[in-house]
Amino acid sequence: MEVRGINHVTIRVSNLRRSLEFYIDILGAKLVHKGNTDVYLDMGGTWLCLLEFKNAKPMDKEHICIDHFAFTVTEDHFPDAVKELIKHKVNITRGPIERGGGKSINFTDPDGNELEFFTGTLYQRMKNWK
Question: Which part of the chain is the VOC domain (predicted)?
């Protein structure tokens, strides 16, 4: 078997309209398709699907689940990305900090899903991991 990478990420959301505003207006995702309860977005070549569950409740940190996922941003663009998050009063959970061979900032979407902007690579992180 030869896996070539992650094909897409599907995120459960409680309010599709609110989430679309966040992912498109704040994070800069491009709308590819909008259905009744789902949307497909392109975010720098990463395919995201937002899937609406109106009565969904956030899981607490004690559940087994995906902790977060990170988007690559360039070192040059990182300060502007941080400014955009602050300008839109996005909930920042950690950073901005230098960590693991790059700059990092963690934040949540409107449903509390944790996301990260990171400037480094896997190999930079492994050189700097302690």
Answer: 5-120
